[in-house]
Specification:
Layout lengths: L2 E7 L9 H13 L4 E6 L7 H10 L4 E6 L6 H17 L4 E4 L7 H15 L2
C-alpha cells in the first residue's frame, strides 16, 4: 500500500503565510522518506485539495491521511473539509481517505503551546 499525508490549511494571499506548513512537510519527509507528503489549501493558495488528490491518484497512492493544520475546529473543519473529502471519496473510490482531527485538538500540541506561553511570560 502506497501512503501519503496531506497537510491541509486555509490559505492566504500572503505567500509567506505557508512557510510553517512547508517546514512541517519537509520535516515529515525527512523523518519518513518513503512517505509522500503534500500541502493543500482551501482557498487563496495553491494547490487545492482536489488537485493534490488527483496527483496522488496518478502516482499510484492508495491511502491518504488528511491532517487539518487548524488550531480550532471551526466551520471550515467541521463542514467544508468533510464535504471536500466526501467528494474525493467519490472521485477516487479506490483510494482510502482518512480525515484526521485538526492539530489543535492534539493534547501534545496544546501542552507545547502552553509551554511556549510560559516561556514567553518569563520566570
Amino acid at each position: 500500500m502506497t501512503r501519503a499525508v496531506i497537510l491541509f490549511g486555509h490559505g492566504s494571499r500572503d505567500p509567506l503565510w505557508r512557510r510553517p506548513m512547508d517546514a512541517v512537510a519537509e520535516r515529515l519527509s525527512r523523518l519518513q522518506p518513503g512517505l509522500s507528503v503534500r500541502c493543500a489549501f482551501l482557498e487563496l493558495t495553491e494547490p487545492t485539495l482536489e488537485r493534490v488528490a488527483d496527483e496522488l491518484a496518478l502516482a499510484g497512492v492508495s491511502a491518504v491521511a488528511i491532517l487539518p493544520m487548524f488550531l480550532g475546529a471551526g466551520r471550515h473543519v467541521r463542514e467544508d473539509l468533510p464535504t471536500l473529502v466526501d467528494a474525493l471519496r467519490q472521485r477516487h473510490p479506490d483510494m482510502l481517505w482518512d480525515l484526521r482531527p485538526p492539530v489543535g485538538e492534539d493534547p501534545r500540541l496544546l501542552d507545547h503551546l502552553a509551554d511556549l506561553a510560559l516561556r514567553a511570560a518569563g520566570p
